[in-house]
Amino acid sequence: MQVFPKFLLSAFAPAQFPKPEIPEIAFLGRSNVGKSSLLNALLGSKQAKVSSTPGRTRSINFFAIHDGPQKAAPKLLFADLPGYGYAKISKSISSEWPKFIEPYLTDRPQLALCLCLVDSNIPPQESDMQLIEFLANANRRLVVVATKADRLSGNGRAKAKAELCQGLNVDDILMVSSKTGAGLKDLWATIQAAAAEEMAE
């Protein structure tokens, strides 16, 4: 799917969030899960900065998604949230969470879908389970997306998916690869369906 993304702004406080007018898709995950790489793969361009040092993103970065180069109004907003679970920055992120991350996840009216990114190559993590429980308690629609699936064989992917579903207590998981593009079409379909449902409400 071809889209025309544009970086909109970085927010460090609720007052800096863009006006809630169109559906928003939140990207959440551990600091080394490959969140920026997945964003760039979905958008078809290097919009999110991929750092060799996990945890560099400290703000919520918003990207406006347009259907075409001549379209004035975007159809979607992607929100790239700070990563968590990296030892060196976990305390600073934890201290910032109540200030602007939690209000975004609990109060944002146009938040159509939360994409919870997990690494398909490692067992379920406690921090991922806590995030999923937090979003469920906030009555947020969420989908678990397992990244780096290209590093697993066919049997390995099936086994990893089953273990993650059981460990995270979810019915299904989307397996994707930013490197090969596997699963991105299904992920886009999931995003579009959630956005359409949000617009219909």
From TrEMBL:
Q: Provide the GO biological process annotations.
A: division septum assembly
* Molecular function terms, GO-annotated: GTP binding; metal ion binding
Start and end of every EngB-type G domain? 21-197
Which cofactors does this protein require?
Mg(2+)
Q: Looking at the keywords, is Repeat present?
A: no
Give the SUPFAM superfamilies listed for this entry. Answer: P-loop containing nucleoside triphosphate hydrolases
Q: Does the keyword Secreted apply?
A: no
Kindly state one GO CC term assigned in the UniProt record: cytosol
User: Which keywords accompany this UniProt record?
Assistant: Cell cycle, Cell division, GTP-binding, Magnesium, Metal-binding, Nucleotide-binding, Septation
Q: Which PROSITE patterns match?
A: G_ENGB (PS51706)
Q: Which NCBIfam families match?
A: GTPase_YsxC
What job does the chain carry out? Answer: Necessary for normal cell division and for the maintenance of normal septation.
PANTHER family in alphabetical order: ENGB-TYPE G DOMAIN-CONTAINING PROTEIN, MSS1/TRME-RELATED GTP-BINDING PROTEIN
Q: Which family does it belong to?
A: Belongs to the TRAFAC class TrmE-Era-EngA-EngB-Septin-like GTPase superfamily. EngB GTPase family.
Spell out the protein name for this chain: Probable GTP-binding protein EngB
**Protein's organism:** Silvibacterium dinghuense
State the gene name recorded for this protein: engB
